[in-house]
Amino acid sequence: MITNDEVNRGKKYILFILSRRDYTKSEIIKKLNTRELSEKSILKVIKWLEENNYVNDESFAYSWAHYRVSNKPVGKFRLQRELSEKGISRNIREKVICDVFDEISEEELARKLVRQKIGFKDINFLNIEPKKIYNLLIRRGFSADIARDIFFELLNKEFS
Q1: Which of 4, 27, 84, 152 shows the greatest Cβ crowding within 10 Å of its Cβ?
Q2: pLDDT tens, residue by residue, 126-141
Q3: How far apart are CA 89 and CA 110, in angstroms?
Q4: Does the structure show a pLDDT above 80 at 3?
């Protein structure tokens, strides 16, 4: 049996956590499950959040993707995994990743990351092993082709 008190408790809690940062629908459901609310109450809270536009997975995915690309560059594979872990549906993930990487190429983003990490002015004074840069790019979710191209450029001191 659903009580208004239970639904109101759920709404109050979710508004409190949404005041700190945005959450996906999936994350909110997990949070509400920890509050020992009935499934019907949780569904009512989710419906209310969607009606009032407090939760929007597509908007969240775009914000997350732009933040990650701008502040801590990651490749398509890593971004795909992160959005998946946050509970974003496959079709939204694919659309967001396609749109974000239409704005900036993955290779350009990888080069930006390498410049940030090694912070060099002249390639001749590079004192980081190219293999470490390759591993960094792979960990950050860039394709093996891009990582390999940059690896060989660093190895041959042709990085631009």
Answers
A1: 27
A2: 567 788 889 999 999 9
A3: 26
A4: no
